[in-house]
């Protein structure tokens, strides 16, 4: 997955086509956070958005930049270590299958 904490202006330009379905406001938000390094709070003020909405918008940005299917959701939860290992194993298998499908599309 793409590290979404920072990216260069060039990287952003190369990948911004993936964000074409987002509003101009959300595209500017992504640029401010990823390229300029603004915090979500400062970026929210800059684009006239609530900090709560910024969080959701950046999750959508992450999904689009990582080519995740539209039915994927971000999930973070505490669980027993054994269960976490099982979930990670399933996620790894899912990612392998997703990459295989992606490669078949480009053949």
TrEMBL record:
<dbReference type="InterPro" id="IPR013324">
    <property type="entry name" value="RNA_pol_sigma_r3/r4-like"/>
</dbReference>
<dbReference type="Pfam" id="PF16509">
    <property type="entry name" value="KORA"/>
</dbReference>
<keyword id="KW-0804">Transcription</keyword>
<dbReference type="InterPro" id="IPR032428">
    <property type="entry name" value="TrfB"/>
</dbReference>
<keyword id="KW-0805">Transcription regulation</keyword>
<feature type="domain" description="TrfB transcriptional repressor protein">
    <location>
        <begin position="7"/>
        <end position="89"/>
    </location>
</feature>
<keyword id="KW-0238">DNA-binding</keyword>
<protein>
    <submittedName>
        <fullName>TrfB-related DNA-binding protein</fullName>
    </submittedName>
</protein>
<dbReference type="InterPro" id="IPR053721">
    <property type="entry name" value="Fimbrial_Adhesin_Reg"/>
</dbReference>
<dbReference type="GO" id="GO:0003677">
    <property type="term" value="F:DNA binding"/>
</dbReference>
<keyword id="KW-0614">Plasmid</keyword>
């Amino acid at each position: 997955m793409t590290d979404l904490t920072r990216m260069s202006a060039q990287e952003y330009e190369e990948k911004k086509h993936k964000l074409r379905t987002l509003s101009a406001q959300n595209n500017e938000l992504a640029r401010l956070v990823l390229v300029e390094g603004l915090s979500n709070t400062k970026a929210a003020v800059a684009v006239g958005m609530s900090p709560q909405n910024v969080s959701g918008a950046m999750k959508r940005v992450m999904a689009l930049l990582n080519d995740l299917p539209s039915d994927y959701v971000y999930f973070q939860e505490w669980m027993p270590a054994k269960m976490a290992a099982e979930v990670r194993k399933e996620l790894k298998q899912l990612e392998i299958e997703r990459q295989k499908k992606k490669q078949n599309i480009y053949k």
